[in-house]
Amino acid sequence: MKASILKLKKFFRLEAERGYDNRAVMGGLGTMLHAWQAEARAEGIGDALLEAIQTRLHNYAQYSPQERQAALIDTWRRVEAELGLPPSPPRTPVRRAANPPVEKPAKPEAAPKTPTAPRRRPAPARTRTQGEPAALDAPTTVLYGVGAVNAQRLEKLGLYTLGDMLYHFPRRYDDYSQLSDMVSLLYGQHVTVMGTVRSIANRPVKGGRRSIVEALVDDGTAALRVSWFNQPWMQRNLSVGSQVVLSGQVDQYLGRLTMSNPEWELADKEQLHTNRIVPVYPLAADLGQRWLRGVMKRVVSYWAPRLPDPLPPDLMAAAGVRPLPEALLQVHFPDAPEQLRAARTRLAFDELLLMQLAVLLQKAAWQGQSARRFPPPAGWLQAQTAGLPFALTAAQQAALDDLLKDLDSGRPMNRLLQGDVGSGKTVVAALCMALVAAEGAQAAIMAPTSILAEQHYLTLQRLLVREGGLASGEVRLIIGATPESEKQQIREGLQDGSIKLVVGTQALIQDPILFAELELIVIDEQHRFGVGQRAKLRAKGDNPHLLVMTATPIPRSLSLTLYGDLDLSVIAELPPGRREVNTQLMLPGERRRAYELIRREVAAGRQAFIVYPLIDGEEGEDGETDERKAAVEEQKRLQAEVFPDLKLGLLHGRMSAEEKDKAMSALRDGRVQILVSTTVVEVGVDVPNATVMLIEGADRFGLAQLHQLRGRVGRGGEQSYCILVPTGNNGAENERLKALLESNDGFMLAQKDLEQRGPGQFLGKQQSGFWDFRLASLSDARLIDKARRHAEELLAADPHLSQPVHQALAAAVHHYLSDGKGDLS
Q1: Separation between Cα atoms, residue 718 and residue 689, nearest integer Å
Q2: In 759-787, which positions are buried (b, 16+ CB within 10 angstroms) versus exposed (e)?
Q3: Model's pTM, two decimal places?
Q4: 367 or 316: whose pLDDT is higher?
């Protein structure tokens, strides 16, 4: 096998192993082809094969992963056939639908045939509108050209009914709306041209097994040679003298400008694939873009104008949004860029408005319930705060006042307590738990990790277990590693009421735990729990008060959406004596400086963290394994080569709960000077003696995560340091690292992180399903503010959306809530 062909095979194999992300070669496969063709031509590879490869792959960067897979498999089969290589089956075969010899004329869309019952689908793919035609629930098989096979292919995209198709939005658009003169074309441009076919012929290649249709098209300013590989029917679709519109990329072959496999349409017909802003839809295997676009055009053109608008006219006018039928037409087949922007804005506004109405209605329902009141006895608060080893900050006192008012309101508390790392949220929650316990009721706090749960337990013991306070046995810890005999004692104590405060992880909801009188639930780092987990704990009481806490600063846009049903208290002040962490960037070649800093701090009696990305095979929040630098191996290397005279500990997510506890205890007790860890150390670990946080591969972390890691140091009175070491010298240009160097403002950093990575990465997949909007963005604060304002005005005028003009909107909200989004926070 020639060297150039071996190289091509290697490129294809690497691309398959990477999931067809177009990164197997620097710059992408398209960039590689030009240099590779010169090498292949020098080895005697024929022009027909080279042109076929160029034709099939020249638009590779624009393909979806499924389209890229099909393109590479087809191209390699062609190489095997041309060069007589033994066939090698592809790793993941992809069947492609055969192209029809001539496009079928589209039938005018009429009211659908009497539908058969659609198949049961996993979840609704759209928001239903009251009064919408019942035919929108018809299966896709009622459409001309959609049989059982194509219907099954559409189901892979979540398209079961005609209504689903209305909300199957394009993933991108190709703007072919501006016609270009052929004389002005430049290599590499994506253009639309219109001209007359002067000649067209079907030329067989390789003994007739393959063919190339070649046409010469001119527009009066110049001529352009156009080719379609292995599509012989194109000679029948186009004839000499016909006017044709072509859209695609300008290529070059033997010094002449060409177009290979462009989209085409006759000029005297409505342009759907050319000469317009062309929608590009998500595809499934065996579905062609051109076919799906045609089906979508028929469905959208007929049914979008027949869809009722759930928004009242006065709300549409006040919000400045387009009618729903117009928005659906324009988001699929826009007439102009500004029309597309307006359409997307309307549809995104609908999504955000429904979410705002849902969270506000849920908040109103929660506030309408009654809960036990806990008024602080006279002098109780002063006695409790006087017994603390420190004075509360003004921000802590203000947050505590909010919580005490909630506990004395007669309705369930439903509050988010937000505070940066080290701001003192736990003591505020502890005082509320102490009040509940003093009145004979019970409180529970649930933490995401055993380490954090144990830390909360020790904090509660230190703050609340004293003379005149709680007894030691009234505060208990239950985690996965708790011995079964002890768990049984705790269960009995909670059921008979002798245990007043319990701290735990998911064991609180997994175990058959019953409470005598659970009146306050505290959930820490609440975004790390799924909605179902929180609901299970809440169900263990009778309308208990709920306090959720987070050390991750929540941007305003998320506060108004995911947490829109919660009252908000913010502790934006650090305790006195805290010094700002000195954050520095060091390139990999400067790592020795960081090690010297650690040595100096350890010599002064202090401790350090060295954090690496996830170890090989360890799962992060996104469920993917990270094969970057392994903390396990690095701990061994650092102990043997860099710090042989010091004691290094190890902490990572694949250790058992008992092993993690031992690692943290060794650090807290001073038996370990340096802890080598993955990001499991990110949340809640409190070691006041630690003054150095060295983060390896810092450019691989999100901003909020980096800020959380930085917050693990600086919790004592000594000057602390956070050293960022990127994976390479270019990592110094990383925007996240620059932002961290410039600011200690957690809220500003959180907003930047949300904008850069999106809510899914920002919050983690536990919350998935509550931000998977089709078009709306949880970083679009302006549109969220608008939706919130109009939702509040609507509910102020009509608290239950019971007025006739709001019936359609009420039905849409009901459908939204019934889709599993009924408990947002």
Answers
A1: 8
A2: bebbbbebbeebbebbbbbbbbbebbebb
A3: 0.64
A4: 316
